[in-house]
Design brief:
Helix 2 packs antiparallel against helix 5, helix 3 runs antiparallel to helix 4 and helix 4 runs antiparallel to helix 5. The protein is globular, with a radius of gyration of 16 Å. With 143 residues, the protein is mostly helical. Helix content is 89%, strand content 0%.
């Protein structure tokens, strides 16, 4: 049986991460005319680095596997919805490439958290590998 009280903290953390990353993305858009693309890209990438690092930190600190997976998956889904909710609501087509991109990021985010929560060196190495894959896939998907 799942203890729902135990899920409150990971869901809250995930919600805060979604708010931070979408806010940083909006801040980057607002700063672009003033500061240029280089600094804007740095601000946005810093915010997006939060997505795969949060489940690692949470998993290592708490050892909560389910919570770490939640923190790895929900923010990616929140970012997807922030970007594409308007298209979804209007009934416009979202490419399968876009769904695959965010799906892979969500799966890797969950794996990052799960492996980090195991707190064994072999699993921590797997967590770092998944983190690196997450970063490569994320950067390759930026237009």
């Amino acid at each position: 049986m799942i203890n729902f009280k135990k899920l409150i903290l990971p869901i809250t953390i995930s919600s805060v991460i979604v708010i931070i990353t979408t806010g940083i993305d909006s801040l980057g858009d607002a700063l672009r005319p003033v500061l240029g693309d280089l600094l804007t890209l740095t601000v946005v990438l810093f915010g997006m680095l939060l997505l795969p690092l949060a489940p690692i930190i949470y998993g290592l600190l708490t050892g909560d596997r389910i919570g770490s997976v939640i923190i790895g998956v929900i923010p990616v889904i929140g970012l997807f919805l922030d970007i594409y909710l308007g298209l979804i609501v209007s009934g416009e087509f979202i490419s399968t490439e876009t769904l695959a991109y965010f799906g892979i990021l969500a799966i890797l985010g969950g794996l990052v958290g799960y492996f980090a929560a195991r707190k064994e060196i072999e699993y921590n190495i797997l967590s770092i590998c998944c983190f690196l894959f997450w970063m490569v896939i994320f950067v390759r998907g930026i237009n």
